[in-house]
Write a structure and sequence with these properties.
The complex is a heterodimer of chains A (91) and B (147). Chain A is built from three helices and six strands, in the order E-H-E-H-H-E-E-E-E. By secondary structure, chain A is of the alpha+beta class. Chain A has a five-stranded mixed beta sheet with strand order 2-1-5-3-4, covered by helices on one side. The N and C termini of chain A lie far apart (39 Å). Chain B has 147 residues and is α/β, with parallel strands linked by helices. Chain B has a single domain, classed as Cytidine Deaminase, domain 2. Chain B has three helices and nine strands, in the order E-H-E-E-E-H-E-H-E-E-E-E. Chain B starts with 7 loop residues before the first strand and ends with a strand. Classes of the chains: A alpha+beta (91), B alpha/beta (147). Strand 6 of chain A pairs antiparallel with strand 4 of chain B.
């Protein structure tokens, strides 16, 4: 499955400045593995040490937050758009 | 070129909406995002067209996280008008309107305006900041019609 991944400004530096990149996979986890194989700098920003989605990013399949779907196991289909946004948080 | 930070410009209704949402959120911190026009390099003009009160998914008096679905919905709405999200506000229920260490550490958007409403005193106090590379700089606020 080929999907488009939209990157926030903060992460574009790890992908040669691109705001959007294409990646392959049948789940979000596989898409991220494909993406980070080509852009290793993204890895630490997407997935935490425990292998789950990093708490400081929100990831959406089309307009649905994957935390409310099946997280990294969320299925993707050809043409889906995966959007990554930094979490807006503080204290 | 020297960096000139924008002035955060709010209507009286927007100011009241921001503060009211903070009181509504008690005893927890409240949060919301701001939309407005941006210039070429993604720099906000400081004008605010829409305020979006959001859910604090932390439901905490010490921290906030803007609900991810509120965030995307607000962003899509702003983009539909050719605008962008340009900042966020949140309340400090018992401390001053100054960014906490957590606020500075988790500030991910160098172009955003980070506004804080302190509810510590009887009267609310609103202040706004840029947070870049761990550095905090206060910016001016202009509320139309508020002396």
């Amino acid at each position: 499955m080929a999907v488009e991944v939209k990157l926030p400004a903060l992460l574009r530096v790890h992908a040669g400045g691109a705001s959007s990149v294409s990646a392959e996979g049948s789940t979000i986890g596989e898409v991220f593995a494909d993406l980070t194989a080509r852009h290793p700098g993204l890895a630490a920003n997407l997935v935490g040490d425990d292998g789950s989605l990093h708490k400081f990013v929100n990831v959406y399949r089309n307009d649905d937050d994957i935390r409310y779907l099946e997280a990294l196991d969320t299925k993707v289909a050809d043409g889906d758009v995966i959007s990554i946004l930094p979490a807006v948080a503080g204290g | 070129m020297p960096f000139v930070p924008p002035t955060l410009r709010l209507s009286l209704a927007q100011y009241r909406g921001i503060v009211a949402h903070c009181y509504d959120g008690l005893p927890y911190e409240a949060c919301g995002v701001l939309a407005g026009p941006v210039e070429g390099a993604g720099e906000p003009t400081g004008d605010v067209t829409t305020i979006y009160p959001c859910i604090n998914t932390d439901a905490s008096a010490r921290t906030y996280t803007v609900d991810s679905r509120d965030l995307l919905r607000s962003m899509r709405d702003a983009e539909s008008r050719g605008e962008e999200l340009i900042g966020v506000w949140h309340s400090h229920t018992h401390t001053d309107a100054y960014p906490s260490d957590t606020d500075v550490r988790q500030a991910m958007e160098p172009n955003w305006i980070y506004a804080i409403v302190s509810l510590k005193q009887a009267e609310p106090i609103l202040r706004a900041y840029r947070i870049r590379d761990g550095q905090t700089e206060e910016i001016d606020i202009d509320v139309a019609g508020l002396a």
